[in-house]
Design brief:
mainly beta
Length: 70
């Protein structure tokens, strides 16, 4: 683990992998987790997955600045 990579922490499927979100997330990824919750990784410098990817413990985004998870 390093300070720039963010990893998914649960099994899930990428629903959105976007370089522009008009609602304020900027570059972001949304994952539908196997537990039914949706996880948003926002304000990233780049996206490392695509829609439909299955993830768990995979680098989903690279955060060079002010990133957060909701």
């Amino acid at each position: 683990i390093d300070s720039k990579n963010l990893y998914s922490t649960t099994d899930g499927i990428v629903e959105v992998a976007s370089n522009l979100d008009p609602t304020g997330f900027g570059t972001y990824v949304r994952i539908l987790a196997s537990n039914g919750y949706r996880y948003y990784y926002g304000h990233m410098s780049s996206v490392n997955v695509k829609v439909g990817d299955k993830v768990k413990g995979k680098v989903v985004v690279i955060a060079d600045y002010g990133a957060f998870i909701e």
